[in-house]
């Protein structure tokens, strides 16, 4: 017979620091971003190999980006990916009430 456990009880058994929670949020956002980039590439009817050729990288690198391995990506790599899809990358520094585009 299955014993039901409340989510709150599970969380209490495995406390997380704020840093761990932020890391988890960042990982989830990277997965979402990678998925969105892959969907954009597919909507343009491009293969990973075609994008990699334009970028000057391997297909494995394109795959890594699309799997959400973005923290490890350099801005130049991301810029090349977006450019290969025909877009531009914009980087915004956000300080709450103030923000500035830096690239």
UniProtKB/TrEMBL annotation:
Residues 37-92 form the HTH cro/C1-type domain. Residues 1-24 are annotated as: Disordered. GO terms for molecular function: DNA binding. Gene3D superfamilies: lambda repressor-like DNA-binding domains. SUPFAM superfamilies: lambda repressor-like DNA-binding domains. This is Unannotated protein. It comes from freshwater metagenome. The lineage of its organism: unclassified sequences, metagenomes, ecological metagenomes.
């Amino acid at each position: 017979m299955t014993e039901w456990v409340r989510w709150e009880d599970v969380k209490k058994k495995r406390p997380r620091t704020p840093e761990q929670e932020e890391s988890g949020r960042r990982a989830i956002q990277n997965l979402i971003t990678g998925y969105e980039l892959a969907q954009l590439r597919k909507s343009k009817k491009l293969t990973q190999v075609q994008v990699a050729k334009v970028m000057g990288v391997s297909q494995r690198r394109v795959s890594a980006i699309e799997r959400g391995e973005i923290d490890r990506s350099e801005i130049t790599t991301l810029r090349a990916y977006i450019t290969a899809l025909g877009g531009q990358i914009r980087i915004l520094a956000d300080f709450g009430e103030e923000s500035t585009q830096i690239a």
